[in-house]
Amino acid sequence: MHSRRTILSAVLGTALAAAAPAAVARAASGTTYYVDSAAGNDSAAGTSAATAWRSLARVNQQVFQPGETVRFMAGRTWTGQFAPKGSGAAGSPVTASSYGTGARPVIAGGNTVPSAVLLENLKHWTLDGLEVTNGTGSTTWRTGVEVRAKDIGAVPGITLRNLYVHGIDGVGQVGKGNIGSAGILVNVRGNSVPTYFTGMLIENNEIADTRAYGITTWSTWMQREGWNSLWGELNIPSAEYGPFTPSTGLVIRGNHVHDVGSGGINPNQVADTLIEYNTVARATSTTTNVGIWWSGADRTTVQYNEVYGSRFGGRGLDCTAFDADASTHDSLVQYNYSHDNGGGFFISVSLGSAPASAVIRYNISQNDGNEIFTFSTNTDGVDIYNNTIYVSPTPSRPLYKIAQVYHNPKNVTFRNNLFVNQANLPYDTAGITYRNNFYRGGPVPPDTAALTGDPRLTAPGTATSRTDLAGYRPLSGSAAIDAGLAIAGNGGRDILGAPLPATVAVGAVQGAPGSIGAPLVSTTMGTGQGSLAALVDGSEATSWASTVSATLPGSITVDHRTVRRVASVTLATHFGQGQGLTRVDVQTWDGSAWVTRLTDAAIGWSSNTSSVERRTLTLPAAVETDRLRLVVKAANRQWGNVALNELTVA
Predict the structure, then answer these.
(1) List of residues 6+ apart from 556 with CB closer than 8 A
(2) Could you tell me if 445 and 532 lie in one domain?
């Protein structure tokens, strides 16, 4: 088994952008600057839309201060490199965003610069709402957004948000990508001052059509466990590498990475990283790479992601959805949906003597190909439990094994997993312990408590997205229900968000339909008429009303008892002008605290009759949550109470 690194051969371009004009320093002011490539004037003040600057050269000349903002005119394009100067401060970042209406402003590298946007040795910077390109016929490797640091110590507070990065070109065949090229590239160089990023946030971006990577990070501060240098195509001198000093607290969330040549999301030299709610599609070409992979990484959590379409490059190659690669420890891979990946679901690679200590739990793999699980290069200490693996009887891609062993893995355990193996694939056994798994179809490996037969799933193989996995729920009477081993620290919920009972089911989904129960509703305003259950019973003919003496603000809380996507809340009521809610906050539960999604949302009602009216409150962005709360700040109280017939989320 060889890592994808061995097939990368292109050399990272090192050309630098043309020198910017001499820097102009300013005192901290919280000033907002405006840039308009059509109507701006570089001799103007730049502090209003009417006095906007024109060029990137003028923007790059400025030394920005904490709290300042530079806004690019919507619908305009700038060719060249945006390489700002000046750092923000904690709680007071420098921000680059847009103004006006229309399409995002475009920073187009135009093949004239290695990176269209370059944040170099900057702290507390936010990029928000820009479009970035750097392509069309390049003869060298290009990058969209590059965040670079060298020999400056801790680098806090970088946020990359709501960017559309695409058309990032490179040489050679797509899929033989250079890890120095990406839609978003974060890198650390140097070896005189240990340097690392802290608290970086990369969220809600779209990265598409890149010849190399989607999102990647790496650092020359990486030496440990026999891993002494990075990939050859970077051409980094051997003297530059230093001892392992990871970037910490990186969050990669809510991104859509698709149609990239060499790996979708790939953090390296990191610790305490969270990768969640991303969609990665078609992240490799016909050669080796992975949808989401991490290396030189400690305590990585990968959850609630959907990965599909990684192309099959051949047996023994890394073409999977997920990969805990070299020098990784304490990885947690949970609540993910993997499907239609040519190379399989998961691969583990470990170097050195320390165990990988990876936990793979409550994931669903549907119609992945090749080798569903692969264990390579001294893999040690991987615990795989309560996953559901579905393989069609008529697969559309090459299939070989459920579990494939390379290079002497040890301490690999499969427990409580449900295999719907309709292609009759075999299982390797060297270094692997099987216990209490459910097998439908194919051979059964040596398992100390194997379950066999029909698990009676609702509609296996029919899932269309990560939020459409209920077809894997076992029906009433299934032998999978209550058949699982007790596993300490099992996360407390299944992939649908249902709380785990004392005796769990085998597989990623608990119980029979309806076992979760109806949503639970509570209020601080009491019940004077009707019932709280009426708010979620699906009928607008039933209702709830508070006590006459209810104090505002008050709250109504709905616990759906399963994680679901919430984009809007619809309130239905009769006698709206007499007792309808008129001003509310909408909050959702993030697992540890309530987060306000809408503040002081105003609601108007047209009538005061028995006819039911409906009002929909749309959240700024869809949220995955199991609980929702309305904080009722004001209401019509003609009769003293407040009332509601139905509360619906969509």
Answers:
(1) 521, 522, 523, 525, 532, 535, 629, 630, 632, 644, 647
(2) no
